[in-house]
Amino acid sequence: MIDAFSLKNKTILITGASSGIGRAMAIACSEAGASVIISARNADRLHETELQMIGDQHISIIADLSTLEGIDLLVSKINKIDGFISNAGVVEPLLLQFIETTDIEKTININGISTIQLTRKLVQEKKLNKGSSIVFTSSINGNKCAYIGSTIYAASKGMLNGFMKASALELASKQIRVNCIEPGMVDTNLLNNSSSISNEDLEVDKSKYPLKRYGKPEEIAWAAVYLLSNASAWITGTSLVIDGGYTLQ
Question: Which residues are catalytic?
Answer without folding.
Answer: 153
